[in-house]
Structures are given as structure tokens and as C-alpha cells.
Design brief:
Blueprint: H1 26-35, H2 38-41, E1 49-54, H3 60-77, E2 82-88, H4 96-107, H5 118-132, E3 135-141, H6 144-150, H7 152-163, E4 172-178, H8 182-185, H9 189-195, E5 199-202, H10 207-221, H11 229-240, H12 246-262, H13 270-280, H14 286-291, H15 294-309, E6 315-316, H16 317-330, H17 338-350, E7 355-361, E8 365-371, H18 377-392
Parallel strand pairs: 1-4, 1-5, 2-3, 3-4
Antiparallel strand pairs: 6-8, 7-8
Helix pairs in contact: 1-3, 4-5, 7-9, 10-11, 10-12, 11-12, 12-13, 15-16, 15-17, 15-18
The structure holds adenosine-5'-triphosphate (ATP) and magnesium ion (MG).
């Protein structure tokens, strides 16, 4: 137990904390405000659809939640009945019915969660909003999971919801958060065109931007002078290596502070950062595991089990697909097709959890070799089993 702490308020480093100002997201915030400026003047005359896109940790969730809170206070000043509703679609496994149910439950907490189709829940939502004379912005975070599960249809249903209201007061606007715009490429042309009009793209942060973001948090979370400037530089440099992921930077800073406290140190020293980094880089970050989809985790569990049993360092795509199939059976899930499995492997590899290399085999052309470079298979299996069991319960 440390008697002294470098932290003043470590909740300011929590992944769910939304600061009142987001450095380097001013223009994007202003753009959102502009897209929704009608909400402050004639909310019933319009409905809006906006896409927010960007890589992991570029601030999509933080930006929209900040915007939602600001819009809430602006509408309040003007006595406009408004609710900002932010839903993480992955938590509902991409099921539109469950997501819409959650939206209804915001106003009608006792609305039964079973026995209604997506269409019926949509109608209920409209009716409830009419009854309350309410306007909403529904932010569907990690919308990729809905497209993956329901395809174009989901987008149609949601846009039809707005069209059904023609001639009547408009009540529902949408913000779709999509990590990878490729996932809307698979939609057909008309679903795509309804979505593509208003896109806000968040670029990856550079080193100087990360330094500004970190400095803000340092002031809020740490005792004065507890974090030397060099340490902030070091952390931001390491985060650049992780594609400019602000979440990684903030989590690293927090862990470094924990190491400093464990040693009862006055300062967060570079050595604390190095310890923190070696504890998280060759492993699976809790935030990352939580953000993986069900099938990505099922596949990863297959990989973990394969390498636990095998003496080989590499597996073929076919072997991994087989192991994934066995896991799916165990969890009573329909396995995804080979193309999707390949996409999962690419994605997990881009996160650095797996490594996928294309090897040229003389007689058979190109093939993909998969390895697990830095995480012990036993550890990976343990973490995934726990996460999947939690889902089941
Ligand atoms: N410009 C910023 N200023 C301050 N904090 C930021 C900024 N951008 C991101 N953050 C913080 O970094 C972390 C990650 O941001 P956020 O969760 O919004 O990323 P994301 O784009 O939604 O990532 P993912 O694709 O994984 O969902 C959060 O703790 C957030 O508060
Ligand atoms: Mg997010």
C-alpha cells in the first residue's frame, strides 16, 4: 500500500470519462453542431443522418458523447424536448431489435424485451416519441456490428423510419459510428447513398496532438509536477507506434502512474512507463478484448487452442478455420464463411494480436501463415473463455 500517490484524481483517466473539451477535435465538433443546428431552431422539420468514422482510439465515441452532452444543454436552454441516446451496438451483438428496444426503454423502462419484431419496435418508438413530444439523436456506436449481422436491411429500416414520418413532425436523427467505411461498401447502392451524404472522418492523432491530449489529462489526474514532460513525450511516442490510439496513450499513462505508486515514488519515471508498456504491449489489453466482436473472439479462441496443442509456430488458414469451427459448435454459433474468417484474421493481425503473413509456396501459389507472436496461448485462452462466458450469462 502506497502512503503517497502521484494521482490527484485517477477517474480522469478512466476510459469512460469524457473531458469537457477535446483537443484537436474542435472542427469536427463544430461540424456536428452545424449538421444538427436545425435541432435548436425547428427540430420537427428535419431529420439528419451523419456518419462518424476513424481508426481505433481516434475519439469517435468521445466526440459524439461530448456533442450529445453539449446538444442536451443547448436544447434545454431553449426548452426543446430532446434526448441524446448513445448505444454501443456491439453490446447488443449488432441486433437491431435489441438496439431499438433499448431506445424505447429509455422512455418506457417496462417495455417487454421479447416478442416484438424490429418493425414493431420501430413503430412503438415513433409512437412513444409522439406521446412525449420528444426529439432524439440516436447514436449507434460500433455500427459495423449491425451491418455485419443484419446487412443492408438494417440501414433501410432505420432510414424508412424517418421517411414514414413524412408530413408529420420529425423526431429521430441518427449518428452512425463506423470504424471502417469498408463495411458500408458491401451495402447496395441505395442503402449506401442514404448514408454517405454526411461523413465526418477522424484522422489518426500525430505525436504533438497526443502530447496535448495527454497534458490535459495530466493536469486533471496527477499531482502537480508528478509527471515530467519527458514522460509525456515517451508515452505519446509509444502511442504513435500503436497507430496514434489515444486510448492506448491514456491507459499507458494511468498504468505508469500505478507502477509509480506501487514503488511509493514521487514521480512517474520513464522506467514506470517501460514497465507499463511491457505489461500491456505483448498482451491483450482489456479495452481491446472488450471491443472485439463475438466471432472475432470465437476465432481467437480457436487460434489459442490450436497453438496450445500444437508444437508448430505457424498454422494455415484452413487449420485455423477448422479450430474456429469446433469452438463455434461448442458455443452454439453458426460459423462464418471463409471470406469473413479471412477478414477477421486480417483485422486481428492489424491489432497485433495475431500475425498473418502471405507465404509463397512453390507448388500451390500464395497461402497465409498465421502465428501468435507475443501472447502465451494459455493466457489468451483464459482471457477469452472468461469474456465469452460473461457474454453467455
Ligand atoms: N481529442 C481528444 N481529447 C481528449 N481525449 C481524447 C481525445 N480523443 C480521444 N480521447 C480519449 O481517448 C480514449 C479513446 O477515445 P474513443 O473511445 O473516443 O475512441 P474511438 O474512436 O471511439 O475508439 P474505438 O474505435 O476503439 O471505439 C478515450 O478515453 C477518449 O476520452
Ligand atoms: Mg468507440
Amino acid at each position: 500500500m502506497a502512503s503517497h500517490s502521484v494521482f490527484k484524481d485517477e477517474t480522469k483517466l478512466d476510459i469512460n470519462y469524457i473531458p469537457s473539451k477535446l483537443p484537436h477535435r474542435d472542427s469536427e465538433h463544430r461540424l456536428l453542431m452545424e449538421f444538427f443546428s436545425f435541432m435548436l431552431r425547428y427540430p420537427e422539420r428535419m431529420a439528419q443522418r451523419v456518419i462518424v468514422t476513424g481508426d481505433v482510439g481516434t475519439g469517435k465515441t468521445a466526440l459524439t458523447q461530448r456533442f450529445g452532452a453539449d446538444m442536451t444543454s443547448e436544447t434545454k436552454k431553449r426548452a426543446i424536448k430532446f434526448r441524446y441516446i448513445h448505444i454501443n451496438c456491439r453490446e447488443y451483438r449488432g441486433s437491431l431489435a435489441l438496439i431499438l428496444h433499448h431506445a424505447v426503454a429509455v422512455f418506457r423502462p417496462t417495455y417487454p424485451s421479447r416478442g416484438f419484431s424490429g418493425e414493431e419496435i420501430l413503430r412503438t418508438l415513433l409512437q412513444v416519441l409522439d406521446e412525449e413530444d420528444m426529439h432524439v439523436i440516436l447514436t449507434l456506436d460500433e455500427f459495423d456490428s449491425v451491418i455485419e449481422k443484419e446487412g443492408s436491411d438494417a440501414v433501410y429500416k432505420l432510414t424508412r423510419l424517418q421517411e414514414m414520418q413524412q408530413g408529420k413532425p420529425q423526431r429521430t436523427s441518427f449518428i452512425f459510428i463506423i470504424r471502417d467505411l469498408k463495411s458500408i461498401e458491401q451495402l447496395d447502392a441505395s442503402a449506401k447513398s442514404t448514408l454517405q451524404r454526411n461523413i465526418i472522418s477522424l484522422e489518426r492523432y500525430g505525436k504533438d496532438q497526443l502530447i496535448d491530449i495527454l497534458n490535459d489529462r495530466v493536469v486533471m489526474a496527477f499531482e502537480l509536477g508528478a509527471v515530467p514532460e519527458d514522460v509525456v513525450f515517451l508515452v505519446s511516442e509509444l502511442a504513435i507506434g500503436e497507430s496514434g490510439n489515444a486510448r492506448f496513450a491514456i491507459e499507458l499513462l494511468w498504468r505508469a502512474g500505478k507502477y509509480a505508486d506501487a514503488e511509493d515514488a514521487e514521480l512517474v519515471e520513464p522506467e514506470c512507463v517501460r514497465k507499463a508498456v511491457s505489461a500491456i504491449i505483448p498482451g491483450l489489453r482489456r479495452s481491446e478484448l472488450a471491443s472485439l466482436g463475438l466471432h472475432e473472439r470465437l476465432l481467437l479462441l480457436g487460434v489459442a487452442r490450436y497453438f496450445k496443442e500444437s508444437q508448430e509456430a505457424y498454422a494455415s488458414l484452413g487449420e485455423i478455420e477448422k479450430a474456429y469451427g469446433v469452438v463455434c459448435e461448442e458455443f452454439d454459433e453458426q460459423p462464418r464463411g471463409s471470406t469473413q474468417v479471412y477478414n477477421y484474421v486480417q483485422y486481428l493481425s492489424s491489432l497485433g494480436i495475431l500475425k498473418a503473413e502471405v507465404a509463397t509456396v512453390a507448388t500451390r501459389g500464395r497461402s497465409t501463415r498465421i502465428s501468435l507472436p507475443a501472447i502465451p496461448a494459455v493466457e489468451l485462452e483464459k482471457q477469452l473463455s472468461a469474456s465469452l462466458e460473461k457474454d453467455k450469462a
